[in-house]
TrEMBL record:
Organism in which the protein naturally occurs: Neisseria weaveri
Top-level lineage group: Bacteria
Quaternary structure and interacting proteins, as annotated: Monomer. Associates with the 50S ribosomal subunit.
Cofactor(s), by name: Mg(2+)
Function comment: GTPase that associates with the 50S ribosomal subunit and may have a role during protein synthesis or ribosome biogenesis.
Gene3D superfamilies, alphabetized: 6.10.250.2860, GTPase HflX, N-terminal domain, P-loop containing nucleotide triphosphate hydrolases
Stated name of the protein: GTPase HflX
């Protein structure tokens, strides 16, 4: 099912769009010493560059700026906006992406000033999801998120037309068009929600069938590109798409995993999270993310080679809280320990003060620590079964 044209990729184009990325260091967004703030900002900018590439764009130029707070009309201010306009002309830019959430007014004003399309971080992530969704459920969820995003911009975007009144007994053309667009988008959103409700019922039926065997459910969660799908494939011998790119997986997959005579579990792979994951996407993907909230244990996969892995873990936990999964017990899986990092790790289980397996160091690529991971999962699975039996 196709989404709004704003987010569609024209596959007939021979060349990808030439993109300029804009990152603004806002005082409120980054705290700490200057060196720490600079590193955090650069990490966020690098991630945004990866998002642009994941969307299929050709990133040809990056611009940065510093501000105490966003400019009301242009986000970056008039002087910087003029600099950006010069860069657009100089580099023949077709699309400018801001690594921030823009208001409809800011987006519209920037497009007038820069004389090209402008997309904010929410729109960029929506564009990636639109490219990656494979299942009917995934496509429905993406389209719902797109329309919800578009409707908010539509309502506020036509504000300048509200004063256009027609003659007696007539409405102004701006108001009539606005009401028509509102109605059409509202009807589409309602229809999509009904379709997703049906999908949720089907998912609930399949889940009930899976749980009838009383097997503990483990859900893989983590920052996008942490290695969840690669781990899922390695453990279950599945063939879920696993690529070194952001948001390679959008659709939830579940498999029965035999671990030992006393322990088998249901393992599910889920969509990866990212910094400032748009609320619209969290809401739209509630049917998929419900699998996470209902799991017995979360396997929180972390890219241990990333210098910013602790912040990524915090971002994941924020989303888990938003979907009601923050109370689900976690087993942290530090992946990619074979890669250079600030904190070298040896494969094995890390236990808490009570002796319970709290984390495991592994490398999916090199096969390091996987036996210990299975041991830790068995331990947790047996504990879940005993807990369920005592209820």
């Amino acid at each position: 099912m196709a989404g709004p044209a704003l987010f569609q990729v024209d596959k007939s184009l021979e060349k990808p769009e030439r993109v300029m990325l804009v990152g603004v260091m806002l005082s409120a967004d980054f705290s700490g010493a200057n060196e720490t703030r600079e590193r955090s900002f650069q990490t966020a900018l690098d991630e945004a560059a990866d998002l642009v590439r994941a969307s299929g764009g050709d990133l040809v130029h990056i611009e940065t700026a510093k501000r105490d707070k966003p400019h009301t009309a242009l986000f970056v201010g008039t002087g910087k906006a003029e600099e950006l306009a010069d860069a657009v002309a100089r580099h023949e830019i077709e699309l400018v992406v801001f690594n921030h959430e823009l208001t409809p007014t800011q987006e519209r004003n920037l497009e007038k000033t820069l004389q090209c399309r402008v997309l904010d971080r929410v729109g960029l992530i929506l564009a990636i999801f639109a490219r990656r969704a494979q299942s009917q459920e995934g496509k429905l969820q993406v389209e719902l998120a797109q329309l919800t995003h578009l409707s908010g911009r539509l309502v506020r975007g036509y504000g300048h037309l509200k004063s256009q009144k027609g003659g007696i007994g007539l409405k102004g053309p701006g108001e009539t068009q606005l009401e028509t667009d509102r109605r059409l988008i509202g009807q589409k959103i309602t229809a999509l929600k009904k379709q997703l409700q049906n999908v949720q019922k089907q998912r609930a039926t399949r889940r009930k069938s899976r749980l009838s065997g009383a097997l503990p459910t483990f859900a893989l969660v983590g920052y996008t590109n942490a290695g969840k799908s690669s781990l899922f494939n390695r453990l279950t011998k599945a063939d879920v798409l696993a690529k070194d790119q952001l948001f390679a997986t959008l659709d939830t997959t579940a498999r029965r995993l035999y671990l030992s005579p006393e322990a088998s579990v249901i393992l599910t792979d889920t969509v990866g999270f990212v910094r400032d994951l748009p609320h619209k996407l969290v809401s739209a993907f509630s049917a998929t993310l419900e699998e996470t909230a209902l799991a017995d244990v979360l396997l929180h996969v972390v890219d241990a080679s990333n210098a910013d892995f602790e912040r990524q873990m915090d971002d994941v936990n924020l989303v888990l809280k938003e979907i009601g999964a923050d109370k689900v017990p976690q087993l942290v899986v530090y992946n990619k320990i074979d890669l250079p990092s600030d904190l070298p790790r040896a494969p094995g289980i890390l236990r808490d003060a009570e002796g319970v397996a709290a984390a495991v160091n592994i490398s999916v690529t090199e096969g390091l620590g996987l036996a210990q991971l299975r041991e830790a999962v068995i331990e947790r699975a047996v504990a879940v079964k005993l807990q369920n039996q005592s209820k």
